[in-house]
Design goal:
Elements lengths: L1 H16 L3 H9 L3 H10 L2 H17 L3 H21 L3 H17 L4 H18 L4 H13 L8 H14 L11 H14 L3 H14 L4 H13 L1
Keywords: Coiled coil, Signal, TPR repeat
Protein name: OspD family protein
Organism: Shewanella metallivivens
């Protein structure tokens, strides 16, 4: 009996340790916070940082701000360690996204992380000019940054559109964010009063990821308003 329990436990650990980006996205799309927590504890390197990032987003949406902050700190530490060993555009872009979310949760961190975010995105652009996730994080950053400080809704749309185009390029390993790019562009359009364009983008996101809960929520919210 003990042997059976041990084998089962090892099997579960093996399953979670083999989680890849698609597995993490699937858990995030359905807001499965327990599975994301498992992935964040039993993966490593970039995948672990990505799992912590997605866990932070779902925890924040669920009102668990302490867990969100802790998960962001874990993602930050993992990515900073990775970048100290080797600079990659994907690690730089994800760390910029983590910094940006930390600022969103605590505005007092803007002074600490604002410039770091801009520097990381610039470095990532120089390292991989055609990386769609770099453009996506630029879009998110621009959405939350006033135009007087170099952001704004027009730039958010431009970067999101750039990301959408770049997602058409072949991708073999780190491939997250395509549906998200449409969603952020839709949000920028909504803020500018283009509700038809926003709805089209959110539907496009669902066409790409049928289980994408955020785009579904936005579409349902828009339908209720109409």
């Amino acid at each position: 009996m003990k042997a059976l329990v041990l084998i089962t436990s090892l099997s579960l650990v093996s399953h979670y340790s083999l989680a890849d980006i698609k597995d993490i996205d699937a858990a995030a799309n359905t807001m499965n916070i327990n599975q994301l927590s498992q992935y964040s504890q039993n993966t490593s390197d970039y995948e672990q940082a990505y799992a912590f990032y997605r866990l932070a987003i779902i925890a924040n949406v669920s009102g668990q701000r302490k867990q969100a902050a802790n998960s962001l700190n874990q993602a930050q530490n993992t990515l900073e360690n990775l970048l100290s060993a080797q600079a990659t555009a994907d690690s730089q872009a994800l760390l910029a996204a983590v910094y940006g979310m930390q600022i969103a949760l605590d505005n007092s961190k803007g002074a600490e992380f604002g410039m770091k975010t801009a520097t990381l995105l610039q470095q990532a652009s120089e390292l991989e000019p055609t990386n769609p996730r770099v453009s996506l994080v630029k879009a998110i950053n621009a959405f939350y940054t006033p135009s007087v400080f170099g952001g704004g809704l027009e730039k958010a749309q431009t970067f999101a559109s750039q990301a959408i185009t770049l997602y058409d390029l072949p991708c073999d390993t780190i491939c997250w964010g395509q549906a998200e790019a449409y969603t952020w562009r839709g949000l920028a359009k909504q803020e500018q009063g283009d509700l038809t364009g926003a709805t089209e983008d959110w539907q496009a996101a669902i066409d790409i990821e049928p289980q994408y809960g955020w785009a579904k929520f936005l579409l349902n919210q828009q339908a209720v308003k109409q």
